[in-house]
Amino acid sequence: MTSNFDTSDRNAQKGGDFVPRLAMINDIAGFGRCSTTVSLPVISVMKVQVCPVPTSVLSNHLGFPLCHFDDYTSHMRDYIKVWGELGLTFDGLYCGFLGNEEQIDIVREFVEMFRPPLFLLDPVMGDHGRAYSSITEMHVQKMKELLPLADIITPNITESCLLTGTPWKDGEWTLQELSGLCERLA
Q1: Cα Rg, the chain, nearest whole Å
Q2: Is residue 119 part of a domain?
Q3: Which among 145, 140, 142 is positioned nearest to 158, based on CA atoms?
Q4: DSSP string of 27-56?
Q5: Residues whose CB falls within 8 Å of the CB of residue 29, separated by 6 or more in sequence, listed in order
Q6: Are 73 and 99 contacting, i.e. CB atoms less than 8 angstroms apart?
Q7: Which is it for strands 49-58 and 69-71: parallel, antiparallel or unpaired?
């Protein structure tokens, strides 16, 4: 498939200024101030073109007792393939919630295909000492394999514990304990 659309000329946007392009692989949550719903407008205000790849569409985030979860895994490869056929390039990749292990493989394939110069990985897997219901031990293991590809990782304490095999502790964490988690993630 060929196109007359010049995908490399990003100076035509925003009055002639270069506009960085960020691929965002993340979920869309209808309620709950998280995911692409919040990230996209914040990053866009920084004059970055955000190109979302939905991993799932949720009625609300997984912290609620009920959630409608529409998994987009079966669409992601075809969606990304079109970007490759168009010859799109990305200055960065932001990856958030991945609902299953196959989506982790798709992120790896994206990195191999587009080779973004910056890869920020937010390994969204749980909160308050508990993994989300969709997160399995295999998911955690595959996420560990994705970490070395990322330039920046932003796990919360729960996710850091899952990724390092550190037991969760209730209460305050000392600076030394948090530093130890960070060292084990590096």
Answers
A1: 18
A2: yes
A3: 140
A4: EEESSSS-HHHHHHHHHHHTT-EEEEEEEE
A5: 35, 36, 37, 58, 59, 60, 61
A6: yes
A7: antiparallel
CATH number of the structural domain spanning residue 136: 3.40.1190.20
Q: How many structural domains is the chain composed of?
A: 1
Residue 70 CB-half CA count within 13 A: 9
Kindly write down the DSSP assignment for every residue of 54-76, as one continuous string: EEEEESS-TTSS---EEE-HHHH
Summarised one tens digit per residue, pLDDT across range 64-111 is 889 898 999 999 999 999 999 999 999 999 999 999 999 999 999 999
Q: How confident is residue 12, by pLDDT bands cut at 50, 70 and 90?
A: very low
Q: Is residue 3 part of a domain?
A: no
Amino acid at 103: Q
CB 88 within 8 A of CB 7: yes
